[in-house]
Design goal:
Elements (H helix, E strand, L loop, with lengths): L2 H8 L15 H15 L12 H17 L11 H11 L1 H4 L10
Helix pairs in contact: 2-3
Length: 106
């Protein structure tokens, strides 16, 4: 499946860029920029020079874990995404539960 087809299925409108290019979407542009700045061009997640695909995989895994579980996001109220999502689902747990009386046989 092409990237632009996936965007359409998700209801996301492409921004600028060529068709099929992951830079079609502003969200992807932002994440790609952060990834390059915070992971690839920085030695925080790997003190060594990235010499192989395995080095990049390890650095990427560390960055994704940090990004989701430790990095504070201002748009989420200065909490990490994992904490924000956990709080969201805890607060909305009653919305996911359907009372047995509400289920009607067909």
């Amino acid at each position: 499946m092409k990237f632009t087809d996936n965007l359409a299925l998700q209801g996301i409108v492409p921004s600028i860029g060529s068709v099929g290019d992951p830079y079609d979407n502003a969200l992807m542009e932002t994440i790609n920029g952060l990834y390059k700045a915070e992971c690839i061009r920085c030695s925080v997640f790997t003190p060594e020079v990235l010499e192989s695909v395995v080095d990049v995989d390890i650095a990427t895994s560390s960055w994704v874990n940090w990004y989701n579980n430790e990095r504070l996001h201002s748009t989420l109220g200065m909490v990490p995404p994992a904490e924000f999502e956990g709080t969201f689902w805890t607060e909305h747990a009653t919305l996911r539960q359907v009372p047995e009386k509400a289920i009607q046989p067909i």
